[in-house]
Amino acid sequence: MVDETALEARLAALETRVRELEDRDALAQLVASYGPAVDSGEAAAAAALWADDGVFDVVPYFELVGHDGIAGMVDDDGHQSLIHNGCGHVLTAPKIVVDGDRARGWNYAFNIRWDGELDRFWIARLSANEWDFRREGDAWRVVRRTNVNLDGDERPRALLRHSTESSGGMA
Amino acid sequence: MVDETALEARLAALETRVRELEDRDALAQLVASYGPAVDSGEAAAAAALWADDGVFDVVPYFELVGHDGIAGMVDDDGHQSLIHNGCGHVLTAPKIVVDGDRARGWNYAFNIRWDGELDRFWIARLSANEWDFRREGDAWRVVRRTNVNLDGDERPRALLRHSTESSGGMA
Amino acid sequence: MVDETALEARLAALETRVRELEDRDALAQLVASYGPAVDSGEAAAAAALWADDGVFDVVPYFELVGHDGIAGMVDDDGHQSLIHNGCGHVLTAPKIVVDGDRARGWNYAFNIRWDGELDRFWIARLSANEWDFRREGDAWRVVRRTNVNLDGDERPRALLRHSTESSGGMA
What we know:
The structure is a homotrimer. Chain A is 40% helix and 39% strand. By secondary structure, chain A is an alpha+beta fold. In chain A, strands 1, 2, 3, 4, 5, 6 and 7 form a seven-stranded mixed beta sheet that branches. The longest helix of chain A is centred in the first third of the chain and has 36 residues, at 4-39. The radius of gyration of chain A is 19 Å and the shape is elongated. The N and C termini of chain A lie far apart (47 Å).
């Protein structure tokens, strides 16, 4: 005879574990959505990856704030020129730490550009990235993405170091 | 006292969610299998990622059809010369949308080549990729992969734009 | 009336499937943790990805053995010079095969370096990687990582070929 209460406890444990796997997948997909959104010039789709008050901090160049800030970067002449000359924003699969309704991730982002004369691509930027995520209803959104070029400066090392702490540096 | 009917409903809901997570993992693994198959010259393994009637459309250069078409590309002198001179087909983790027994994905693919004289690698191609998948029994297969160089042309932008539509552009 | 024994069997099957998904995620996260650990210079964190007796075989240059060997590479002047001049160890999402308490994976690793004079990055190495993993308690660890430059040699092709065998070449 099977114990129904024990069955219920096993089921509840499994529901928690599946929810966590779904969270981790949703966060990885959020990161995988950035490149295709900006390289197709879809400003609203790129902005919607962020929370309304989300920040994209491209250290030390500029800090974009909110949906208008992020959409504005995509619609800007600088970005439009990049994608019309041939460009890929190529992001790697992140390391992710989830803590309830907050999460953090770390990965690399290439900014790669086409050179029609040399008939090849070149790497304009390779950055270390730290992502702060927040659950909003059924979805996850980016609260802050910090992006620093791996040019020997201490800042990208400090940022990636958070990934080696068990809490991911979350307070 | 635990309600058995309620337990069964929770279990059924969980089975559906786990199946979806398994689908998403299987699709990501299909994409991750391409590079190692072609860079080791395993023509049959590369072909088996596609459905029997699958298509690999390398816009605007050529369109490979079916297992013979895809295996033929791997066995071809052009590809064999690439891998014997040093080459990596490096694909990123895709964004994926699943709809029952069909799915779509978008990612980036590098074609990277070794230059022994300069003692470094160079990027011959960086393409936007769209994948159409179909469930066949227990496995997923590629029905169509479209690959377009990110050289400033409108076509890669149009293709990546599908990823920003909720349906992924599936009819 | 719901059959409790049937419910228990469905629950047990689901527990096995969720455990497998968790394993696959944990293994992918292990691989995603390497770059941020070494690019931030965190020697202990990098070493902890390996089992105590783990090996990192960088064919044909050197073979690092155990936590001391791996931490020593990170603390070494060569690696410290790389990261202080600007460098990224960028790894792709692996193909993974799990077999109980063992697993194998295959992916690509870039070694990318900053050139301040040319204001761009260049690709010093692109390697094929094979990973052997072992479950240790609740965690997975790397037992052996083999890394071979994709310079046209047969060795990286032989290594990637294992990924096309159903067993992943595990005995």
